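Priority: low. Protein: Putative sinapine esterase. Input follows.
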Amino acid sequence: MKIHILLIVIFFTFGFLDKVVSNLHPFEAIFNFGDSLSDTGNFLASGAILFPFIGKLPYGETFFRHATGRCSDGRLVIDFIAEAYGLPYLPPYLKLTKGQNIHHGVNFAVAGATALDSEFFIKKGIGKIMWTNDSLNIQLEWFKKLKPSLCTTKQDCDSYFKRALFLVGEIGGNDYNYAAFVGGNITQLFANVPLVVEGIIKATSALIDEGAVELVVPGNLPIGCSAVYLTIYRSQNKEIYDNYGCLKAFNAFSQYHNKQLNLALETLRHTYPHARIIYADYYGAALRFFHEPGHFGFIGSLRACCGGGGPFNFNNSARCGHIGSKACANPSTHANWDGIHLTEAAYRHIAKGVIDGPFSNPPFKSSPFKIA
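Result:
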């Protein structure tokens, strides 16, 4: 009788503890897809012929003390998410070595990647300016190729992926950037939105079919506050700017993309009721420090920390890392890093906003570690 009672106590105790541990550490792994906002080294590993400068200081100077292939001075949103859930930083897929432990996840994101395949841009005559051909579809193929190394049977995969977090993006920003940087007008950008959103939704759907049940799909940033857009579309006409110095039309465009993405995600939730599909509002999380930089410890948010001069310290002939450019003394006082990408300090605020709220819908699962 005593043995039976003891066994019951042990069963319930360990069952309870297992549940507690599961709640405290909801994810065993993270798999990430996207572009330069979350690439942790794939672009560099792929050759990086066009932009090798991200493989040198001052990139990476703040946290890692050396360049890692991240397009920032330090950590990215994906790094803060990994920290918050007690997981190691994601190794880039293209740098994996034989026998490497990948149980905690892998990063497939590539700087310059697009939601649409490269053929789309080649047909438009703008293929030459693309950083990479490793689109979202190619990243998905990498994941499918790696999947047998993660789990074998359907039962094993279902059990493993039930405790994994999948991030689909941010992706799509470059689809618009490439068109804008060759002089495309905003009407042309709007025309691409349905195609870009469809590409993101198809990829998200494909991952669910592969076994993903917890997915995060971030929206686009307020590109009207980006130093590169502010430089390219600079005008004496004050009417095109909002009260904070951002380009009204381009921020409205970002909001339009995000709205269409949200509508498509809502449909996807009905298609896959068993999956938990989270929209991460990068736009809202970032707009705060563009509107109130001082509140977040920034001396300014529109001017790049690292660059070669100009009103917003973005100069295409002397970009960050090139001869003629230099980095500011303290990147933590800037939101914008190199004119296109943000600083570690800015990414920290975005990560905190989406993990702790209120910039995610539905909310993230509670993380065991808080972002300072």
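The longest helix spans residues 186-209. The beta strands are 29-33, 105-107, 164-168, 214-218, 276-280, 306-307, 326-327, 360-361.
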